[in-house]
Amino acid sequence: MSLHFFVQLDCIPREVLGDPDLIELLGRRDQAIRVAEEYRTGHGVEDIERMGYRMEVRAASEEKPRETREVTVAQMLRETAPLDELSGHCANCPVSINGEAFGCIQSIGLPIDKAGEEWLLGMINENSPEAVRMSARAFVPNPDHLGRLQTMRKSRFFESTTGVSRTVGEVTIQSDDILAEFFFREHWEPVELLAPLLLFDLVASEDGRRGDDLHSFLSAISQGEGREKLPGIVFSPNLEKHPLESDTSRDLLVMFLAQYLSLASGVPFRVWN
Fold this sequence. Notes:
45% helix, 273 residues, 2 domains, two-stranded antiparallel ribbon
């Protein structure tokens, strides 16, 4: 199981398939490839027509949103053929996160490891209390989102049964509050993405401003004349200080890059799960 996110740039594959089918087909193809590799390495089977497995797919009935099918790897790869037919439209896509076809769609794998939660809050710049205070307002807990996340913890989709917290200045940040919004807030407008990118000290201006300095500069010019003079913003995580040491931290960094691409391209960032 994964939590999907994507940069919602209008394109032909999205127009033809729609986001639900696009994400479903990508998931089927990835699973078929994984199963095929398991058969080859674990059982010495090469014929994909003989590689059978049970796969959960989206059903047509709203009362039963998912159903399990007995399929072969060959069947699943045939069903994902529309991806091959449309992949050429992804060439030179400005929001492909990994440079590959359909690279605008990525996911966070489960379970969420504790090291990733600690990495996330460790990214907050303690020397930027004003940027933290203002940006943290975007993460006021939504009761529904928080309840869904706590259900995930109880269902062992998290390595730890409790979240982590960190205090910067007068602000205490809870990983539950942050991840609940990242996982269950389905739509972010580009301007809204400055909050998480500033909170976790992931961006800088082209002239080197970041943290409180960048926040104050952006606030000053956005409230006066010359909004068109906003500086270029670059994605600039401090990975020397905060190295990627877990699957979740790597997935979260990819998510942040997607948020940055949404901001830079002026298109929404979406979550799908």
